[in-house]
Design a protein that fits this description.
By secondary structure, the protein is mainly alpha-helical. It has a domain at 1-18 and 26-38. It has helices at residues 5-17, 26-44.
Length: 54
C-alpha cells in the first residue's frame, strides 16, 4: 500500500518539527527516515529555505 499525499504531508511536518513518526508501519518509518536524511544533507550545504537576493 502506498502512502497517501495527506499521510506523507503529516510525516513531513513531524520530521520538520522534530517529532517522531508514532507508527510501526515500515513504509511510514522509511519515508520519515528519508525526509530526515534529506534535511540533514540540506542543512550541511546551508540550503535552508529561499535565498535572499537583496
Amino acid at each position: 500500500m502506498t502512502l497517501s499525499p495527506h499521510r506523507k504531508h503529516k510525516i513531513y511536518i513531524a520530521a520538520a518539527m522534530g517529532y517522531g513518526v508514532g507508527s510501526d508501519d515500515p513504509e511510514e518509518v522509511a519515508y520519515y527516515k528519508q525526509i530526515k536524511e534529506e534535511m540533514k544533507k540540506e542543512r550541511g550545504k546551508r540550503n535552508m529555505g529561499i535565498s535572499r537576493t537583496d
